[in-house]
Design brief:
This protein has 563 residues and is α/β, with parallel strands linked by helices. It is built from twelve helices and 25 strands.
Length: 563
């Protein structure tokens, strides 16, 4: 009976009941003056900019046509805005095929979203709340629009890799209580081809939280319903070029800092005779599921250095669960972890996963890392280590296969970077609750998300890490503030959809891929001109005077000229 409880607790645990979420947007705490609407006589639709988060009650300046440029295989974004002086009971959206003579990009290659508003706040200033356009809700149904308000509409156009180069013309149509408003746009497809996301070289590492999905939808952990609900969330991540599967191999590796804490995916039982048994059922299901979504390169396991240094196991003799505080370097720490790490390595080899697995450390001090290394390598000398660090020691970096450091604190100089990468290792950078700029908060200008890919190219990094892809909070359909975290810090996508931040991040990653392709092909002055513009994105730090939107426009123009 005890063994049955041990085996089933990980696989079939139910999550606490979670109230049905209301997606009714909050009132704007800083409403725009209504006087501007006096000159707006009729509902209209126009093209805006993907660099702008349009205020819900402000009257914007819009265009009537739009021209986009894309490589074959690239995803490009557009934002339109509907202005409604009178209330609309039902707004729906239609997109046409994009046509160039006899050639077509089908309408199903265009993903249309309603841009929804969530509560945000100024950087580390909860008293300065504001309503921000960020959540992207698939426009598969309809929604009501208040009088004297705007509703942004977002398009993501996925150009097929076999598209014939040329200019494709299509329309976006807003249906307002049966009345259609249409605006045209053009996508010019170039001669070059962007590889599929699975083939991108950019090392994207956004940490996934499967527990928040189960909690949001109130389904049992690791049930069929849970996996079915996770698939679109994780497939969207795979289509962004994600390379890493996030696994929690102990309970609460980050001390339960999220609304939905990470539990252990591996059960640990101390048997009556003093031996250990390990249950890998959930771990295996999770990894296999993520691989089926298209994320296959790396498995990061958090951790043998949790923030709280608490380690849990089920004691068969006592028929209860224990938590121990174990300090690295002590006999008790090694007695707990050494048999586990030895058995875990054996299991991973049996699954064919050992070579792509890392034991991951997150911002741990050197006096903990050093004794942890001793135990890890005593278990198996071939273990790989992943580390996000905010300090530097050359010996620490040398033993990390995958090292990441925060944006505005570069810890390897150019020579050290080349040496580390020359050994086949990875170097990325990360943002989290800092810096203020650039970042991916709900109050961050959208161009900052795209800037991150350019910074990685300029600094010669391999990619980017962020601690939270979907650590959802309560009521996150209309809310992005959470405890002391900057608004939006805990997630990049929303249940059932995406975000402006996420789509712009992918845009920057695609630009990174273009840069790598062109750097290999170009020579002489053409390459020098492109690299000169790219080098500007290595800026540290980014103050309020830096025009990121202007830098992005200049960078994209340089890419186009270099083709």
């Amino acid at each position: 009976m005890k063994l049955k409880v041990f085996l089933m607790s990980l696989a079939m645990a139910a999550v606490p009941a979670f109230a049905q979420q209301n997606d009714k947007e909050h009132a704007d705490p800083k409403p725009a003056p209504v006087e501007a609407w006096q000159g707006v006589k009729a509902t209209s639709l126009g093209w805006g900019s993907t660099d702008v988060r349009y205020q819900i009650g402000a009257v914007p300046q819009l265009g009537k046509s739009l021209s986009l440029y894309a490589w074959k295989g690239e995803r490009v974004n557009a934002q339109a805005v509907l202005m409604a002086p009178e209330a609309i009971g039902e707004l729906s959206v239609k997109v046409s095929d994009l046509k160039q003579g006899k050639h077509t990009i089908p309408a199903d290659a265009v993903e249309a979203f309603f841009v929804r508003y969530v509560m945000s706040e100024a950087f580390y200033n909860p008293a300065d709340s504001c309503l921000m356009a960020d959540r992207l809700e698939p426009a598969t149904g309809s929604m009501a629009i208040d009088a004297k308000s705007v509703r942004p509409l977002w398009l993501t156009i996925s150009v097929p890799q076999d598209a014939v180069p040329g200019k494709y013309k299509g329309t976006l149509t807003a249906v307002c209580d049966g009345k259609e408003l249409s605006i045209p746009y053009t996508v010019e497809v170039g001669r070059r081809t962007l590889p599929a996301p699975a083939e991108w070289s950019f090392h994207l590492d956004l940490w996934q939280n499967p527990y928040s999905v189960a909690r949001h939808y109130n389904v049992p952990l690791w049930s069929k319903e849970h996996f079915d609900l996770m698939r679109p969330v994780m497939t969207r991540l795979a289509n962004a070029g994600q390379k890493v599967i996030t696994c929690s191999i102990i309970k609460h590796p980050w001390n339960a800092q999220t609304e939905h804490p990470f539990e252990s995916m591996i059960g640990k039982k101390k048997c009556i005779d003093g031996s250990w048994e390990y249950n890998y059922k959930v771990f295996d299901m999770w990894v296999e599921f993520m691989m089926s979504c298209g994320i296959t390169k790396q498995i990061d396991c958090y951790t043998i250095l949790p923030w709280h240094l608490q380690f849990e196991y089920f004691d068969e003799a006592e028929n209860c669960t224990y938590q121990q505080h174990l300090k690295p370097g002590t006999k008790e720490y090694e007695q707990y972890l050494l048999p586990f790490l030895t058995d875990f390595a054996k299991h991973l080899r049996e699954k064919g996963w050992f070579e792509k697995t890392c034991i991951a450390m997150d911002e741990r001090p050197k006096d903990q890392l050093e004794p942890a290394y001793v135990t890890l390598y005593k278990a198996d000398k071939a273990w790989r280590v992943k580390g996000a660090v905010n300090y530097f020691g050359p010996d620490v970096a040398e033993r990390m296969y995958d090292i990441s450091f925060i944006y505005d604190h570069r810890l390897l100089n150019e020579e050290e970077l080349q040496i580390h990468q020359g050994r086949g290792n990875l170097v990325t950078f990360y943002t989290c609750c800092g810096p203020h700029r650039p970042n991916t908060f709900t109050f961050s200008p959208p161009a900052e998300s795209a800037f991150l890919g350019w910074h990685s190219a300029a600094a010669n990094y391999d990619g980017y890490l962020r601690w939270a892809y979907n650590s959802w909070i309560n009521n996150q359909l209309v809310e992005s503030r959470f405890r002391s975290f900057p608004a939006g810090d805990c997630f990049m996508v929303y249940p059932g959809g995406s975000s402006i931040r996420m789509e712009r991040l992918v845009e920057g990653i695609q630009d990174f891929e273009k840069i790598q392709i062109l750097r290999k092909e170009l020579k002489g002055s053409k390459l020098d001109k492109l690299n000169a513009v790219i080098s500007e994105f290595a800026i540290l730090p980014v103050g309020p005077e830096v025009d990121i939107e202007g830098m992005m426009k200049k960078g994209k123009a340089a890419l186009r000229a270099a083709e």
